[in-house]
Amino acid sequence: MTIYYRGRCARITHRAFETSYPPRSYAIAELRKVWVVQRRTERFVDSAVVRVCSSGVTTTAILGTLWGWTDDLPVFPMVLISAVLIVTTLTILAWPADPGLFELWAYYRGRAVCLLRCSDGRKFGQIRRALSRALDHFGES
Length: 141
What we know:
Layout (H helix, E strand, L loop, with lengths): L2 E4 L3 E4 L2 E4 L4 E4 L3 E9 L8 H20 L7 H20 L6 E8 L2 E8 L2 H20 L1
Antiparallel strand pairs: 1-2, 2-3, 3-4, 5-6, 6-7
């Protein structure tokens, strides 16, 4: 028996695609038209509104400090506030984007089924390639 992928969430052999959660098994011979769906998960820091507002507040604080709009306040607190806002803005802008949720779909016995859901892009890619090799192997035999 040829094993194309073996991990905690799935096992792919030349005969079956098996998932651990939920426990299911699909015959490779009966899988047709495999496709991938990537769903984005919206996080608060990914929001354009948060990025624009934080950039606007930071810019206002910096310009206010440089051009003396805040003559009533001491310079040190304004510089400190500007530095904190700059760091916050850079952190939000540099925050790694969430890849979302990857889903592997196929037609199985005439019905569209979700074979696997995974949020780890690397693991999902390995599983997708393993399934592709299993399907190629089935097509050659």
